[in-house]
Amino acid sequence: MLYYTSQASHPAEFLSCGNLVSDGGFLHQRRCIDACVLILVCRGTLHINQKGKNLDVHENETLLLFPHQVHYGYAPSSGRLSYYWVHFHMTDPQSRILTSKELLRSRNSQNSSLLSTLSSAEESFILPESGRLSSEKRSLLLFVQLLDIAKRENYQSSWRTRYALNLLLLELSSELLSSDRALENKAPGKLPDMIEWIRSHYDQPMTVEELAARYHYHPAYLTSLMKKYTGYSVNTYINHVRLAAAKNLLCQGDFLSIASIAHTCGFPDEKYFMRLFKKQEGMTPSQYRAAFQKKYINAK
């Protein structure tokens, strides 16, 4: 794995952004540019080659195309493809591309000249060549916000687009690097496996009793354990994951009705979904969707 690293004290410079949508057969052009390109796939799979390596970027996965390196589509897309993209320049003169081993060595070494640069994801851009979003998908929402701001700024570079871009890059650095390693390292027994199962099957019916039986816990003990290590009760965590998935779908347009989104994300009752959504977000699902409608779409 390769990582693009840079100090956050040298903010990235926004160039352009958009949302590519294709109903099939999209093939990325061959090019070599002096800017970074961040891609986040919302639907379908993007097939692209960077520096001789074929990469398949699936839904909720990211790809960073490095500057001054040749990239091109190595195979056409199949079915609907939608992804967000943003072009930007890194302004830190010490920006560099590191391998996983080099990154680990630089973060662990007390004598490393990179130590101050890579001391934490909160103070640095540490962007993997490829990665997968966390279940909360905060980066996705920030990406949509960037697109919305850029639309309202007529796609001109401004302080608003620059701040939005840098917030996205910092969040992405934190999300992709931390993932759920902290929880995996400290949570006992099969709790991490159960949490991963919830994230993979949130669209299916599930109860505390069923989860406890599956992972050999007493329901009361499981509830206590979950609260201790995640800060949520089991049911609250399930709804948290489902609402995150719902926000993802709401950001992608109006191709699904609110009722369909509720059902797709595991809520059997549309009205319950709407009440829960408004309680957490302070607005209805329809209002949330309308807040993110202004984004440029380049259809292929």
TrEMBL record:
Keyword Transcription regulation: yes
One Pfam family here: AraC_binding
PROSITE patterns: HTH_ARAC_FAMILY_1, HTH_ARAC_FAMILY_2
Gene Ontology molecular functions: DNA-binding transcription factor activity; sequence-specific DNA binding
InterPro entries cross-referenced by the UniProt entry: AraC-bd, Homeodomain-like_sf, HTH-like, HTH_AraC, HTH_AraC-typ_CS, Tscrpt_reg_AraC-type_HTH
Keywords: DNA-binding, Transcription, Transcription regulation
HTH araC/xylS-type domain mapped to chain residues: 192-291
The keyword Transcription is assigned to this record: yes
Annotated protein name in UniProt: AraC family transcriptional regulator
Organism: Candidatus Blautia pullistercoris
